[in-house]
Specification:
The chain is mainly α and 109 residues long. The protein has helices spanning 2-9, 18-25, 30-54, 61-84, 86-93, 99-108. The protein is elongated.
Length: 109
């Protein structure tokens, strides 16, 4: 009977899938999202600064710079996923108005 009521009311014709349940179970509160953003962004800035400082080490400085600076950029970009969510972030990155900037940034990394 409950199933019939849901179908007739137009709410939900099917039972929630495992993916929908997983998404609902892993949703973060706003406070947790802000803390994750701050932590990830701070780690990204720290890696970028560390990479810039390691640039001056003889012989291995360029490799260390490339690794730490790339990790710092990825962490900083990833930090915004805490605020928006990964799917929304990727959709906005690949909008037609931002597509060229996104491609240039990804190729540069």
């Amino acid at each position: 009977m409950d199933k019939l009521k849901r179908v007739l009311s137009g709410r939900d014709a099917e039972e929630p899938s495992g993916l929908a349940e997983a998404i609902d179970a892993t949703s973060l509160s706003w406070g947790t999202r802000v803390k994750g953003f701050i932590a990830c962004f701070a780690i990204g800035c720290l890696c970028s600064i560390l990479g810039s400082c390691l640039l001056w080490i003889p012989k291995k400085g360029l490799v260390l710079f490339a690794v730490f600076y790339t990790l710092g950029n990825i962490a900083s970009i990833g930090s915004t996923m805490f605020l928006m969510g990964p799917v929304k972030q990727l959709k906005r990155m690949f909008e037609p108005t931002r597509l060229i900037a996104t491609i240039v940034m990804l190729v540069s990394i």
